[in-house]
Amino acid sequence: MTNPWIIAPLDIALRLLLALLLGGAVGLEREQSNHAAGFRTHILVCIGSCLIMLLSIYGFSDFVNEAQVRVDPSRLAAQVISGIGFLGAGAIVRNGLSINGLTTAASLWVVAAIGLSVGAGFYYGSVIGCTLVLFSLWFLNILEKRWLQRKRKYIITIMTDDQTSCLASISTLLNGSGVELRHIEFRENQENAPTLYTLLLTVKLPKPQMLETITTDIVRLLGKPRVSVESL
User: Is the pTM of this model over 0.70?
Assistant: First the structure.
């Protein structure tokens, strides 16, 4: 009967190689999308998780038969799942009202789970899990951008010295483009001379692709004002 606490060197190499391939597949998608945690980061996380799982299961085989020692292969694995959070936190960036990097943080977490599964010899679950992750990151991303975010809200921030004519001109422009103006807010910057106003417009676009066109039209209409855009 094969000892479940002993693994051949070739099997160790194969598991680590599979972790490299699966982690690299997810990382390649993130790299192509220009995210902070990309190809090499996902590979390192997956290989590291796999190695820790191998250590947890097979690294203490000499102590299995000791009366006072309890071998628990899940102990180190549990620490990997909680410890991977520091990498995920580093991938999350807050930019004004928008938060970026949540998907990449989630991909790092799930790649750690894939690595642990490979290290435990759970090959079928590892491959299926990696396939579903790639499906979610690639195909569902296309589906989300094409259908679920067709009418996404944005905040357009404009710095101007003439709030009345600025608002009238922009309202005409937005109405003519089919853009829904949901909220308007004025802020006066009294430190400047002449006085500058910050105009915050919450808009809802029929199509996300219109954002660049609308921003360009506003800049052309108002004579090169300072314009910035944030998504909600």
Answer: no
